[in-house]
Amino acid sequence: MKHSIAGAAAALLIGLSPVVSMAETIRVTLQLPETHSLGVNWKDFAGIVEEKSGGKLKVQLYSSAQLFKDKEVPTAVGSGAVEAGSAFIGRFAGSVPAVDVVSIPFIFGSEAHIRAAVAPGSDLRAALDAAILKETNCRVLWWQAFGRNIYLNNGSAIRTPADIADKKVRTYGKVHGWTIQALGGAPTLMSGSKQFLAYQQGAVDVGMTGASAVKSRKLHEVMDYMTLTFDSAIEFVAVINNDFYEGLSDKHRAVIDAAAAEVEQKLRDQIYAEEAEIVEEMKGNMTVVELTGAQRAAWVAATAGVVDRFVEETGATGRAAVAAVKAAD
Hints:
By secondary structure, the protein is of the alpha/beta class. It has 2 domains: 2-147 and 234-271, 3-Layer(aba) Sandwich (D-Maltodextrin-Binding Protein, domain 2); 150-232 and 278-327, Bacterial extracellular solute-binding protein, family 7 (D-Maltodextrin-Binding Protein, domain 2). 46% of the residues lie in helices and 19% in strands. Helix 2 runs antiparallel to helix 10, helix 4 (111-118) crosses helix 12 (305-327) and helix 6 packs across helix 12 (305-327). The protein is globular and about 55 Å long. 47% of the residues are buried.
């Protein structure tokens, strides 16, 4: 009942019809343009769902944070203000702190390690997806690979942990903030859509993001250096309001589940190849810095305490999440 009331009220506030009047329409709030990989991923999902349902399910995309900013997505989807959406998984950390495990620096040793740890049915996925559903009323349809974390700045290249010291750094999650603190910098939590102006106006000295965002948000126009630390995985989740989902027919739920599984695999297969392509493309617009083995080792050593802080703050669930990631290697 409380979700239905909240959903109706929120929908009216943003000028949209409540869930109950659009029972076969899935409105989706996105943070990035439809041309970005995550937007294309949702368009693929929409095409499959509409075709397999014979047009009885419709998917409407609202890109570039038209409806909600990323930090608002868990509440917006969970309440029913909008049926579905995507957000960086760290936006669910307020309800499920263990989701931030993917942001622990250097916890993943390789792309293959990331794939194994976050694969559908993995121990990590089973625990986190269930917790998100229980705590937020958001059902995870699929995880959206976004690539790996990099740093952006102007002036001189970031190569060592000392280059972060005393710098104001844009972050996009609590654990990223801990990472910056471990490196001697000052974290500033900021939505992805605010990056361009923040960098252009010098509101922060350094940015953290993914390579694909450098291109899609045109960050290369306001930042001169891109450092490929690849220190953590950037994972978004595609979620749907569970009341809406449960209200669909068995046939339509099956269509949605099958489409989600298909587009998750497709995106994960292409994202790292695309990441490499974008890095090469950006070399024509900015200076790209690749760390040496010794430099990477220095970053690993400087941020080693973050995992201990994570376990201390998240308790048994966080410890289990760390163990699940390490066991997948």
